[in-house]
Amino acid sequence: MVSRLILVLGDQLSPDMAALRRHEPGDLVVMAEVGDEAGYVPHHPKKIAFLFAAMRKFADSLRRDGIDVAYTRLDDPDNAGSIPGELLRRAEQHGTDEVIATEPGEWRLIQALDDCPLRITQLQDDRFLASHATFQDWAEGRKELRMEWFYRDMRRKTGLLMDGDEPAGGQWNYDHDNRKPAPDAVAFSGPMSFTPDAEVEEVLDLVARRFDNNFGQLRPFAFATDRGQARRALTHFITHALPRFGDYQDAMLAENGFLYHAVVSMYLNAGLLTWQEICTAAEEAWRDGHAPINAVEGFIRQIIGWREYMRGIYFREGPDYTRRNELGHSRSLPWFYWGGETRMRCVSLTVAQTRDEAYAHHIQRLMVTGNFALLAGIDPYQVHEWYLSVYADAYEWVEAPNVIGMSQFADGGIVGSKPYVSSANYIDRMSNYCGDCHYSAKTKTGEGACPFNLLYWHFLNRHRDRFAQNPRMSRIYANWDRMDEDRRRTILSEAETFLNRMAQGAVV
Ligand SMILES: Cc1cc2nc3c(=O)[nH]c(=O)nc-3n(C[C@H](O)[C@H](O)[C@H](O)COP(=O)(O)OP(=O)(O)OC[C@H]3O[C@@H](n4cnc5c(N)ncnc54)[C@H](O)[C@@H]3O)c2cc1C
Ligand code: SF4
C-alpha cells in the first residue's frame, strides 16, 4: 500500500530536492516522460534526449538507494500524456490521493498542479540561493531592481569572494577587464564530451523516432547525463577554461562556439550540479592561484547574481510576464531562425551552432539573435518561444526574463535600464564573423550595407519618444540629430526596404 506520491520533474534531478527530502517508507516516487512537456514548444531533440536520459538514470539511482519509483516512458501504452494525468493514474493505481511536489519552474505547470483534483503540496524549490521571500524583501520599495545591488547582497550572504565585509581583491566587479575581442585561437578543446552508453542510445532512438521534425541536430550527442559525468564536465572547465573565461567572455568566433565558456547551464538547471559546488570550485581556483580574479568574479556573478536575479524577476512579475510587449513589436519571427537561409553571417552561424549543439553562449544569444530580433521589431512572444525551444538549458523561469526582459526590453525596463541594441560595430569588434560576410560592417547605407547598421537607427528613430530622455542614450540621439537629413532619410528608407523584403520571405 502506497502512502503518498512524491513527484520528481525532469529538471528536478537532485537527490535532496525538497519533495524527496520528505520521502518516507511506503511513499512512491513518480517520474514521467510526457507528451505535454516534450511538446508544448518544439524543443531541440538534444534537449529532450538529455532530459529523458538523465531522468532514467536518476530513477535508477533512486532505486539503487532503495526508493520505489514508478517511471513512465514516453512510449508506454498507458502514458497519460501530461503530469497531472500521470499523477491521477498513479493515484488511482495505488489508492492514494496525496502528492508531495517541489514547485515547478514555470507558471503553466504550477497552475496545472493547482488544478489537479488531488491533494498536492507544492514545496518551495530550495535549490536556489534566494527564495521567493528573499527576493521580494530585496525588491520591496526599490525604484529600480538593478542586478548589481542584488548580486552584492548575495556575495555577502554566501561569503563567496569576500574578505570579511569587503569584496576579495578590493572590487565587487571586474567587468572592465572582461571585454577582450575574439582571440586568434582558443587554447581549450571545448566542453567535455561523453560517449552515449546503451541507455542513452535507447533514448536517442526514441527521440529520433518521435521528434524527427523538430529543429535541431540530435546526433552526435555528447552531453553528460548523470551527476558523475556533470561533475567531470565542471572539473574540466575549472581546470582548463576558467582562467581565460573572463577575458573572452563576450567574444565570438566563427570556428569555435564555446570559447572559454563553462557549458554547464543545462546540468545546473536540471539539478545534476548545484550552484554551491560550481561557485566553490571557482573560488578555490582563485584562492589556489589557478585562475585570476576577473575570471572568477565574472563567473560567480553569472550564477549567484544573474541567474538568481532572473528567477526572482520571473516569479515576482507573475504569469503574464511572457506576454509583455512594451514596445509593441509585431513582426513574425523570420524563417532563418529555424534554419532558413540568411546572408547575415553572424545570424547564420549562431543559428547553425544552435541547431547543432542546442547551445550558444550569452553574447551570441544577446547581441546576435536577440539584438537582431529587437532591432527588426519581432513579436517578443515569438522570440521567447524560439529561445525556449532551441537551447538545452531553457526553462521559462530563466529563459523568459533573459528574453522578454534583458534581450527584447518587452518588460519596459525592469531587467535592463536600456535596450541591448547595437549596430554592426559591436559584432565586428567582438567577433570574426564580419570578415567573410555578404554584408559590410563598415558600410552604413547603399550596396552591401549591414542590416544591423540600418535597423539600429530605424529602431532608435521609431522609439524616440521612449528612449530620447534616457540619460544613457541621449548622446546616441544627439549623433542621429547631427546627421544630414538626407542621410537619415536614406537609412530609414533602406531599413524599411530590408524589413519588407524580409517579411516577404526574400533571402536577406
Ligand atoms: C536571450 C537570452 C536567452 C537566455 N536563455 C537562457 C536559458 O534559457 N537558460 C539559461 O540557463 N540561461 C539562459 N541565458 C543566459 C546565458 O546565456 C546562459 O546561461 C549561458 O549561455 C549558458 O552557457 P554556459 O553554461 O556556458 O555559461 P557561462 O557563460 O559559462 O556562465 C556560467 C553560468 O552562469 C549562469 N548564467 C550566465 N548568464 C546568465 C543569465 N543571464 N541568466 C541566468 N543564468 C546565467 C548559467 O548558469 C551559466 O551556466 C540566456 C541569455 C540570453 C541573452
Ligand atoms: S557584417 Fe553585419 S550581418 Fe554580416 S556578420 Fe557583421 S554584423 Fe553580421
The gyration radius over C-alpha positions equals: 24 Å
**Element string (H = helix, E = strand):** EHEHHEHEHEHHEEHHHHHHHHHHHHHHH
Helical/strand content category: mainly alpha
Low-confidence parts, pLDDT < 50 over ≥5 residues? none
Question: Which molecules are bound in this entry?
Answer: flavin-adenine dinucleotide, iron/sulfur cluster
Mean pLDDT reading: 97
What coarse outline follows from CA principal-axis ratios? Answer: globular
For the largest sheet, list the strands in their spatial order: 3-2-1-4-5
DSSP strand content: 5-15%
Major sheet = 5 strands, parallel
Helix content: 40-55%
Strand tally is 7
Number of helices: 22
The end-to-end span amounts to: 63 Å
Task: Describe, in plain words, how this protein is organized in 3D.
There is one protein chain. Strands 3-2-1-4-5 form a five-stranded parallel sheet, sandwiched between helices. The chain is built from 22 helices and seven strands. Helix 3 (45-64) packs across helix 8 (198-210). With 508 residues, the protein is mainly α. Bound molecules: flavin-adenine dinucleotide and iron/sulfur cluster. Residues 344-346, 424, 427-428, 433-434, 437, 439-441, 450-452 line the site of iron/sulfur cluster (SF4).
Give the helix/strand layout.
Layout: E1 5-7, H1 18-21, E2 28-32, H2 35-39, H3 45-64, E3 69-72, H4 83-94, E4 98-102, H5 107-115, E5 119-123, H6 132-139, H7 147-158, E6 162-163, E7 166-167, H8 198-210, H9 227-240, H10 242-245, H11 265-270, H12 275-287, H13 293-317, H14 345-357, H15 362-376, H16 380-390, H17 396-407, H18 424-430, H19 451-462, H20 464-467, H21 474-482, H22 485-503
Parallel strand pairs: 1-2, 1-4, 2-3, 4-5
Antiparallel strand pairs: 6-7
This protein binds flavin-adenine dinucleotide and iron/sulfur cluster (SF4).
